[in-house]
Amino acid sequence: MIYFDNSATTKPKKEVVDTFTKVATEYYGNPSSIHSIGLQAEKLLMQSRKQIATLLGVKDHEIIFTSGGTEGNNMVLKGVASQFQGRGKHIITSAIEHPSVSNACEQLKRDGFEITYLPVDKNGRIHVEDVKKAIRPDTILVSVMHINNEVGTIQPIEEIGKLLANYPRILFHVDHVQGAGKIPLAFHDIPIDFATLSSHKFHGLKGTGAIYIRDGVKLDPLLAGGNQERNIRSGTENVAGIVAMAKALRISMEKLDEKVANMQKIIAYLRNELALIDDVEIHTPIEYTAPHILNFSVLGYKAEVLVHAIANHEVYVSTTSACSSKRNEPCKTLLAMGVDEEHASSSIRISLSFDNTMQEAKEAVEAIKTSIEKLKLAMRR
């Protein structure tokens, strides 16, 4: 079995699962309780917060634990909107954001907010000049993903951060879900006000995540309750999941340069071999692209048909993002890049983890070739 759908979710590491099980069964106290069992859980929570903060190069108290990327993105957008609506009701984002950002923005529009969706170029990249042009006196937030989840384009986060440093009343949020554990961001240097992470994208468990909130930045809580997580995210913390997330992030970032270089070699091989197949068009750009995502189309075939055909060889890829794949919609990012609907409807995403090998890539190419040939024969009959 070859699993090439890691942008949807990664397989949890065995040691990560073992850590979760140990904490869940032996340190199950509520970290808000004042007895010894609760204090043990609180200590593990504090240690995990410190470890994640150290790995990300931020302060301990700048890490707030959540249930994952969707909650984190909603927390930031809606929390900023609530906190700063007296200052302005204009938000800038891009046309290719994850649904947890774009749909949250659409909800805010119903509350009177105005959203500017920035276009992208043929490589799926926004231009900093367009960000500057979109800024208004009532702009309160710019929200841009670090790595596009469908095509893999890396956005100019550092350049946007430098621009927004000249606008101290505008906050900057980065959806870092696809970048965490692969391409680090210097949150303090850029500077970034908020960043979102999700554990299951770097071999942690589903249902755990975090947001970075820059020291001194206020955010209205999305959830009201027991005032956990600095009164920003109420609810009893998932201590076992959080400890496991800290371990997963540490493992992912060990020997990072070496692992990324190997992943880039595999992606380059896949790109070169797939480009040789008739009717295949590669959409992921060569420059400004993540090391783990490759998007391509096979003209004349619906994406879901080809995905199922490839799966018959026990090679698992995906169509668009996991959040949109079951709706059989054209790839939103490709449409924004100017790709025609026929190609956008036939796009396939390969997404790697550090565990994938060159041998798997070779076998996957053969499976894709065979699947296309079989479909061609079936269409001729």
From TrEMBL:
<dbReference type="InterPro" id="IPR000192">
    <property type="entry name" value="Aminotrans_V_dom"/>
</dbReference>
<dbReference type="InterPro" id="IPR020578">
    <property type="entry name" value="Aminotrans_V_PyrdxlP_BS"/>
</dbReference>
<dbReference type="InterPro" id="IPR015422">
    <property type="entry name" value="PyrdxlP-dep_Trfase_small"/>
</dbReference>
<feature type="coiled-coil region">
    <location>
        <begin position="246"/>
        <end position="273"/>
    </location>
</feature>
<dbReference type="InterPro" id="IPR016454">
    <property type="entry name" value="Cysteine_dSase"/>
</dbReference>
<keyword id="KW-0479">Metal-binding</keyword>
<dbReference type="GO" id="GO:0031071">
    <property type="term" value="F:cysteine desulfurase activity"/>
</dbReference>
<dbReference type="GO" id="GO:0046872">
    <property type="term" value="F:metal ion binding"/>
</dbReference>
<keyword id="KW-0411">Iron-sulfur</keyword>
<keyword id="KW-0175">Coiled coil</keyword>
<dbReference type="GO" id="GO:0051536">
    <property type="term" value="F:iron-sulfur cluster binding"/>
</dbReference>
<keyword id="KW-0663">Pyridoxal phosphate</keyword>
<dbReference type="InterPro" id="IPR015421">
    <property type="entry name" value="PyrdxlP-dep_Trfase_major"/>
</dbReference>
<dbReference type="Pfam" id="PF00266">
    <property type="entry name" value="Aminotran_5"/>
</dbReference>
<feature type="domain" description="Aminotransferase class V">
    <location>
        <begin position="2"/>
        <end position="361"/>
    </location>
</feature>
<comment type="similarity">
    <text>Belongs to the class-V pyridoxal-phosphate-dependent aminotransferase family. NifS/IscS subfamily.</text>
</comment>
<keyword id="KW-0408">Iron</keyword>
<protein>
    <submittedName>
        <fullName>Cysteine desulfurase</fullName>
    </submittedName>
</protein>
<dbReference type="InterPro" id="IPR015424">
    <property type="entry name" value="PyrdxlP-dep_Trfase"/>
</dbReference>
